[in-house]
Amino acid sequence: DADRTDHARLRATIAAEINRLSVSLADYKRITDFMLWNEELPKTSTKKVLRPQVKELAARWPESGRPTGNS
User: Sign of the CA dihedral 53, 18, 5, 69?
Assistant: First the structure.
């Protein structure tokens, strides 16, 4: 499927860039995982991201579709 191939290619490109930019960071400051999101994140009326809801959405993400990180 072309969408899956594009998604995988995009993830690989982003992971490579994160790794390149993380070289000089301490291990505890490095990004260990990320998700690509095609929809707007849940926000308050003042446009702040509702972090607890985002965490919940990420936890419910299907395991087969979850990113593997960039480690």
Answer: negative
> What sign for the dihedral angle of Cα 39, 40, 41, 43?
negative
Residue 42 has a pLDDT of 94
Predicted confidence band at 69 (pLDDT cuts at 50, 70, 90)? very low
DSSP letters, the chain, are: -HHHHHHHHHHHHHHHHHHHHHTTS-GGGS--------SPPPB-TTS-B-HHHHHHHHHHS-GGGS-----
